[in-house]
Amino acid sequence: GHSSPVLWDDTIYLTATLGEGLRSLIALDAKDGKEKWRTEHAFAPYSQHRFNNFAASTPACDGKRVYLTWTSPQGAEALAVDHSGETVWKKTLGSFYAKHGSAASPVLAGGVVMVSSLGEKDGSFIVGLEPKNGEEKWRLERESNDKGSYSTPLLREAEDGVLEAIFTSTAHGITALDPKTGKVRWEHNPDFSQRCVGGPVISGETIFASAGSGGGGKESTVIRVKDGKVEAAWEASRKGLPYVPTGVAFKGLIFLLNDGGVMTCTRASDGEILWQERAVGAPYASPIVIGDKIYCCSKEGELAVLEATDKFKPVSSYKFPDGIYATPAVAGGKLYVRTFSKLYCIGE
Fold first, then answer.
1. Are 179 and 114 in contact (CB under 8 A)?
2. pLDDT tens for each residue of 110-131
Protein backbone atom coordinates (compact mmCIF):
# COMPACT_ATOMS: atom_id res chain seq x y z
CA GLY A 1 0.00 0.00 0.00
CA HIS A 2 1.00 3.63 -0.50
CA SER A 3 -1.08 5.12 2.34
CA SER A 4 0.65 6.81 5.25
CA PRO A 5 0.62 5.33 8.77
CA VAL A 6 -1.56 7.12 11.34
CA LEU A 7 -1.46 6.86 15.13
CA TRP A 8 -3.94 6.99 18.00
CA ASP A 9 -2.60 6.48 21.54
CA ASP A 10 -0.33 3.42 21.32
CA THR A 11 -1.65 2.01 18.05
CA ILE A 12 -0.46 2.53 14.49
CA TYR A 13 -2.99 2.05 11.68
CA LEU A 14 -2.21 1.51 8.03
CA THR A 15 -4.00 0.10 5.02
CA ALA A 16 -2.61 -2.54 2.69
CA THR A 17 -3.51 -4.64 -0.31
CA LEU A 18 -3.10 -8.25 0.84
CA GLY A 19 -3.46 -9.88 -2.56
CA GLU A 20 -5.71 -10.01 -5.57
CA GLY A 21 -9.07 -8.67 -4.45
CA LEU A 22 -8.33 -8.25 -0.73
CA ARG A 23 -7.59 -5.10 1.28
CA SER A 24 -6.90 -4.65 4.96
CA LEU A 25 -6.65 -2.23 7.86
CA ILE A 26 -3.72 -3.33 10.03
CA ALA A 27 -3.24 -2.27 13.66
CA LEU A 28 0.29 -2.35 15.10
CA ASP A 29 1.59 -1.72 18.59
CA ALA A 30 3.49 1.58 18.53
CA LYS A 31 5.91 0.35 21.21
CA ASP A 32 7.34 -2.62 19.31
CA GLY A 33 5.58 -2.81 15.92
CA LYS A 34 3.86 -6.12 16.69
CA GLU A 35 0.55 -6.70 14.93
CA LYS A 36 -2.54 -6.37 17.15
CA TRP A 37 -5.18 -7.26 14.55
CA ARG A 38 -6.16 -6.83 10.93
CA THR A 39 -9.41 -6.60 9.01
CA GLU A 40 -10.03 -8.04 5.56
CA HIS A 41 -12.20 -6.44 2.88
CA ALA A 42 -12.87 -8.19 -0.43
CA PHE A 43 -13.17 -6.06 -3.57
CA ALA A 44 -13.13 -6.36 -7.33
CA PRO A 45 -9.80 -5.12 -8.78
CA TYR A 46 -9.97 -2.50 -11.51
CA SER A 47 -7.71 -0.65 -13.91
CA GLN A 48 -5.50 2.05 -12.39
CA HIS A 49 -2.09 3.71 -12.86
CA ARG A 50 0.74 1.20 -12.59
CA PHE A 51 2.29 3.18 -9.72
CA ASN A 52 -0.98 3.51 -7.81
CA ASN A 53 -2.29 0.94 -5.33
CA PHE A 54 -5.72 -0.19 -4.15
CA ALA A 55 -4.70 0.94 -0.63
CA ALA A 56 -3.55 4.46 -1.45
CA SER A 57 -5.96 6.36 0.81
CA THR A 58 -4.74 7.15 4.34
CA PRO A 59 -7.17 6.45 7.24
CA ALA A 60 -8.39 9.09 9.71
CA CYS A 61 -8.85 8.49 13.45
CA ASP A 62 -10.62 9.79 16.52
CA GLY A 63 -10.92 8.36 20.04
CA LYS A 64 -13.60 5.87 19.05
CA ARG A 65 -13.11 4.88 15.42
CA VAL A 66 -10.83 4.61 12.38
CA TYR A 67 -12.33 5.87 9.10
CA LEU A 68 -11.46 4.47 5.68
CA THR A 69 -12.37 5.13 2.08
CA TRP A 70 -12.06 2.58 -0.71
CA THR A 71 -12.96 2.66 -4.39
CA SER A 72 -13.96 -0.22 -6.62
CA PRO A 73 -15.99 -0.78 -9.81
CA GLN A 74 -19.08 -0.51 -7.57
CA GLY A 75 -18.11 3.05 -6.60
CA ALA A 76 -16.74 4.98 -3.63
CA GLU A 77 -17.19 3.44 -0.19
CA ALA A 78 -16.63 4.73 3.34
CA LEU A 79 -16.47 2.65 6.50
CA ALA A 80 -15.65 2.97 10.19
CA VAL A 81 -13.87 0.40 12.35
CA ASP A 82 -13.57 0.64 16.14
CA HIS A 83 -10.22 0.38 17.91
CA SER A 84 -10.62 -3.36 18.35
CA GLY A 85 -11.12 -3.96 14.61
CA GLU A 86 -14.90 -4.41 14.52
CA THR A 87 -16.74 -2.75 11.64
CA VAL A 88 -19.13 -0.09 12.99
CA TRP A 89 -20.68 0.99 9.69
CA LYS A 90 -20.09 0.78 5.97
CA LYS A 91 -21.68 2.82 3.22
CA THR A 92 -21.50 3.03 -0.57
CA LEU A 93 -21.51 6.73 -1.42
CA GLY A 94 -21.92 6.76 -5.18
CA SER A 95 -20.29 5.89 -8.46
CA PHE A 96 -16.62 6.61 -9.11
CA TYR A 97 -14.28 6.31 -12.05
CA ALA A 98 -10.86 7.79 -12.77
CA LYS A 99 -8.37 6.23 -15.16
CA HIS A 100 -5.53 6.37 -12.63
CA GLY A 101 -7.60 4.95 -9.75
CA SER A 102 -8.07 6.95 -6.53
CA ALA A 103 -6.00 8.38 -3.67
CA ALA A 104 -7.89 11.12 -1.76
CA SER A 105 -8.07 10.44 1.99
CA PRO A 106 -10.95 11.09 4.42
CA VAL A 107 -10.64 14.12 6.71
CA LEU A 108 -12.28 14.65 10.11
CA ALA A 109 -13.39 18.25 10.69
CA GLY A 110 -16.42 20.14 11.96
CA GLY A 111 -17.90 17.01 13.50
CA VAL A 112 -18.06 15.13 10.19
CA VAL A 113 -16.01 12.70 8.11
CA MET A 114 -15.43 14.45 4.77
CA VAL A 115 -14.97 12.23 1.72
CA SER A 116 -14.27 13.60 -1.76
CA SER A 117 -15.10 11.55 -4.84
CA LEU A 118 -14.03 13.71 -7.78
CA GLY A 119 -13.87 11.42 -10.77
CA GLU A 120 -13.92 11.60 -14.55
CA LYS A 121 -17.57 10.78 -15.19
CA ASP A 122 -20.90 12.20 -14.02
CA GLY A 123 -21.60 11.88 -10.32
CA SER A 124 -18.65 13.64 -8.64
CA PHE A 125 -19.35 14.81 -5.08
CA ILE A 126 -18.04 15.71 -1.64
CA VAL A 127 -19.96 14.37 1.37
CA GLY A 128 -19.96 14.95 5.11
CA LEU A 129 -20.80 11.83 7.15
CA GLU A 130 -21.84 11.44 10.78
CA PRO A 131 -18.89 9.67 12.49
CA LYS A 132 -21.13 7.50 14.72
CA ASN A 133 -23.19 5.81 12.03
CA GLY A 134 -22.14 7.06 8.58
CA GLU A 135 -25.35 9.01 8.08
CA GLU A 136 -25.00 11.57 5.31
CA LYS A 137 -25.24 15.06 6.82
CA TRP A 138 -24.59 16.96 3.59
CA ARG A 139 -23.60 16.40 -0.02
CA LEU A 140 -22.11 18.85 -2.49
CA GLU A 141 -22.49 17.84 -6.13
CA ARG A 142 -19.40 18.63 -8.21
CA GLU A 143 -18.61 18.81 -11.91
CA SER A 144 -16.64 15.99 -13.52
CA ASN A 145 -14.18 16.22 -16.39
CA ASP A 146 -11.48 14.04 -17.91
CA LYS A 147 -9.02 14.86 -15.09
CA GLY A 148 -10.19 13.44 -11.77
CA SER A 149 -8.79 14.87 -8.52
CA TYR A 150 -6.54 12.72 -6.31
CA SER A 151 -5.91 15.53 -3.83
CA THR A 152 -6.70 15.40 -0.09
CA PRO A 153 -8.04 18.68 1.40
CA LEU A 154 -6.23 20.80 3.98
CA LEU A 155 -7.80 22.84 6.80
CA ARG A 156 -7.41 26.53 7.61
CA GLU A 157 -9.02 28.87 10.10
CA ALA A 158 -10.51 31.89 8.32
CA GLU A 159 -10.43 35.44 9.68
CA ASP A 160 -13.97 35.05 11.09
CA GLY A 161 -12.93 31.95 13.03
CA VAL A 162 -14.69 29.46 10.75
CA LEU A 163 -12.74 26.32 9.92
CA GLU A 164 -12.46 25.89 6.15
CA ALA A 165 -11.60 22.75 4.20
CA ILE A 166 -9.57 23.63 1.10
CA PHE A 167 -10.06 21.31 -1.89
CA THR A 168 -8.28 21.42 -5.25
CA SER A 169 -9.56 19.97 -8.53
CA THR A 170 -9.27 20.52 -12.25
CA ALA A 171 -12.99 21.20 -12.59
CA HIS A 172 -13.26 23.84 -9.83
CA GLY A 173 -9.75 25.01 -8.97
CA ILE A 174 -9.58 25.91 -5.26
CA THR A 175 -12.75 25.48 -3.20
CA ALA A 176 -13.26 26.41 0.47
CA LEU A 177 -16.03 24.50 2.28
CA ASP A 178 -17.50 24.81 5.74
CA PRO A 179 -17.11 21.19 6.97
CA LYS A 180 -20.12 21.50 9.28
CA THR A 181 -22.57 22.37 6.52
CA GLY A 182 -20.89 21.59 3.22
CA LYS A 183 -21.56 25.14 2.02
CA VAL A 184 -19.05 26.72 -0.35
CA ARG A 185 -17.47 29.71 1.38
CA TRP A 186 -15.53 30.87 -1.68
CA GLU A 187 -14.04 29.46 -4.86
CA HIS A 188 -11.29 30.40 -7.29
CA ASN A 189 -11.12 28.63 -10.65
CA PRO A 190 -7.95 29.23 -12.72
CA ASP A 191 -9.20 26.83 -15.43
CA PHE A 192 -6.64 24.09 -14.89
CA SER A 193 -6.28 21.75 -17.84
CA GLN A 194 -4.08 19.25 -15.97
CA ARG A 195 -4.70 16.85 -13.06
CA CYS A 196 -4.63 17.77 -9.33
CA VAL A 197 -2.80 15.13 -7.31
CA GLY A 198 -0.84 16.95 -4.58
CA GLY A 199 -2.80 18.99 -2.08
CA PRO A 200 -2.88 22.76 -1.49
CA VAL A 201 -0.21 24.60 0.50
CA ILE A 202 -1.43 27.21 3.00
CA SER A 203 0.72 29.97 4.52
CA GLY A 204 -1.47 32.48 6.34
CA GLU A 205 -3.67 34.17 3.75
CA THR A 206 -1.67 32.70 0.86
CA ILE A 207 -2.81 29.45 -0.79
CA PHE A 208 -0.88 27.60 -3.51
CA ALA A 209 -2.28 24.86 -5.77
CA SER A 210 -0.81 23.08 -8.77
CA ALA A 211 -1.77 20.57 -11.44
CA GLY A 212 0.27 18.42 -13.76
CA SER A 213 0.69 15.28 -15.82
CA GLY A 214 3.36 12.94 -17.12
CA GLY A 215 5.55 13.11 -14.03
CA GLY A 216 5.66 16.87 -13.48
CA GLY A 217 3.76 19.99 -12.47
CA LYS A 218 2.56 22.02 -15.44
CA GLU A 219 0.37 24.82 -14.04
CA SER A 220 -0.39 26.53 -10.75
CA THR A 221 -2.31 29.28 -9.05
CA VAL A 222 -1.41 31.32 -5.97
CA ILE A 223 -4.12 33.36 -4.27
CA ARG A 224 -4.53 35.55 -1.24
CA VAL A 225 -7.77 35.22 0.74
CA LYS A 226 -8.95 37.84 3.21
CA ASP A 227 -12.48 38.18 4.59
CA GLY A 228 -13.71 35.80 1.93
CA LYS A 229 -12.32 37.92 -0.91
CA VAL A 230 -9.91 36.21 -3.30
CA GLU A 231 -7.17 37.91 -5.30
CA ALA A 232 -4.18 36.71 -7.28
CA ALA A 233 -1.05 36.78 -5.10
CA TRP A 234 1.89 35.97 -7.38
CA GLU A 235 2.91 33.56 -10.11
CA ALA A 236 5.00 30.49 -9.29
CA SER A 237 7.94 29.44 -11.43
CA ARG A 238 6.86 26.56 -13.66
CA LYS A 239 10.30 24.99 -13.34
CA GLY A 240 9.76 23.98 -9.72
CA LEU A 241 6.08 22.98 -9.76
CA PRO A 242 5.13 19.73 -8.00
CA TYR A 243 2.63 17.25 -9.41
CA VAL A 244 2.36 14.38 -6.90
CA PRO A 245 4.05 15.71 -3.71
CA THR A 246 2.23 18.28 -1.57
CA GLY A 247 4.41 21.23 -0.54
CA VAL A 248 4.77 22.53 3.00
CA ALA A 249 4.69 26.01 4.57
CA PHE A 250 6.80 27.12 7.55
CA LYS A 251 7.31 30.57 9.11
CA GLY A 252 6.28 32.55 6.06
CA LEU A 253 8.12 30.33 3.59
CA ILE A 254 6.66 27.84 1.09
CA PHE A 255 8.76 24.79 0.22
CA LEU A 256 7.74 23.02 -3.00
CA LEU A 257 9.33 19.66 -3.82
CA ASN A 258 8.86 18.80 -7.47
CA ASP A 259 8.67 15.31 -8.92
CA GLY A 260 12.34 15.33 -9.85
CA GLY A 261 13.47 16.02 -6.27
CA VAL A 262 14.25 19.74 -6.72
CA MET A 263 12.97 21.91 -3.89
CA THR A 264 12.02 25.57 -4.34
CA CYS A 265 11.94 27.86 -1.29
CA THR A 266 9.63 30.82 -1.92
CA ARG A 267 8.62 33.72 0.28
CA ALA A 268 4.84 33.41 0.78
CA SER A 269 4.22 37.16 0.92
CA ASP A 270 5.55 38.06 -2.54
CA GLY A 271 6.63 34.85 -4.32
CA GLU A 272 10.34 35.66 -4.41
CA ILE A 273 12.40 32.50 -4.94
CA LEU A 274 15.06 32.33 -2.22
CA TRP A 275 16.66 29.11 -3.37
CA GLN A 276 16.05 26.20 -5.73
CA GLU A 277 18.21 23.11 -5.25
CA ARG A 278 18.07 19.33 -5.51
CA ALA A 279 16.99 18.04 -2.10
CA VAL A 280 16.44 14.33 -2.72
CA GLY A 281 15.85 11.79 -5.49
CA ALA A 282 12.54 11.72 -7.37
CA PRO A 283 9.69 11.58 -4.79
CA TYR A 284 6.05 10.57 -4.49
CA ALA A 285 5.92 11.23 -0.72
CA SER A 286 5.35 14.79 0.48
CA PRO A 287 7.91 16.71 2.55
CA ILE A 288 7.13 17.29 6.24
CA VAL A 289 8.51 19.69 8.86
CA ILE A 290 9.63 18.56 12.31
CA GLY A 291 10.93 21.37 14.51
CA ASP A 292 12.93 23.49 12.07
CA LYS A 293 13.91 20.64 9.74
CA ILE A 294 12.35 19.39 6.49
CA TYR A 295 12.26 15.64 5.86
CA CYS A 296 11.96 14.39 2.26
CA CYS A 297 11.70 10.81 0.98
CA SER A 298 12.47 9.54 -2.52
CA LYS A 299 10.89 6.70 -4.48
CA GLU A 300 14.25 4.90 -4.21
CA GLY A 301 14.18 4.98 -0.40
CA GLU A 302 16.37 7.98 0.41
CA LEU A 303 15.46 10.11 3.44
CA ALA A 304 17.01 13.59 3.23
CA VAL A 305 16.94 16.22 5.97
CA LEU A 306 17.53 19.94 5.45
CA GLU A 307 17.06 23.19 7.35
CA ALA A 308 13.67 24.86 6.90
CA THR A 309 15.20 28.28 6.27
CA ASP A 310 15.72 30.82 3.49
CA LYS A 311 19.14 29.30 2.79
CA PHE A 312 19.73 25.84 1.32
CA LYS A 313 21.33 23.86 4.15
CA PRO A 314 21.36 20.04 3.86
CA VAL A 315 21.70 18.30 7.23
CA SER A 316 21.89 14.56 6.59
CA SER A 317 20.56 11.68 4.51
CA TYR A 318 19.91 7.97 4.89
CA LYS A 319 19.14 5.21 2.37
CA PHE A 320 16.55 2.56 3.25
CA PRO A 321 16.82 -0.89 1.65
CA ASP A 322 13.72 -0.36 -0.50
CA GLY A 323 11.52 2.39 -1.89
CA ILE A 324 9.13 4.87 -0.26
CA TYR A 325 5.87 6.20 -1.69
CA ALA A 326 4.07 6.99 1.60
CA THR A 327 4.51 10.28 3.46
CA PRO A 328 6.01 9.67 6.94
CA ALA A 329 4.03 10.18 10.16
CA VAL A 330 5.20 11.87 13.36
CA ALA A 331 3.97 11.19 16.91
CA GLY A 332 5.40 11.07 20.42
CA GLY A 333 8.83 12.25 19.35
CA LYS A 334 9.18 9.47 16.80
CA LEU A 335 9.21 9.33 13.00
CA TYR A 336 7.36 6.48 11.28
CA VAL A 337 8.54 5.69 7.75
CA ARG A 338 6.69 3.22 5.54
CA THR A 339 8.78 1.59 2.82
CA PHE A 340 7.59 -0.98 0.28
CA SER A 341 8.16 -3.87 2.70
CA LYS A 342 8.50 -2.50 6.24
CA LEU A 343 7.41 0.14 8.73
CA TYR A 344 10.29 1.82 10.59
CA CYS A 345 10.11 3.70 13.89
CA ILE A 346 12.94 6.23 14.29
CA GLY A 347 13.52 7.93 17.66
CA GLU A 348 16.15 10.08 19.28
1. yes
2. 999 999 999 998 889 999 999 9
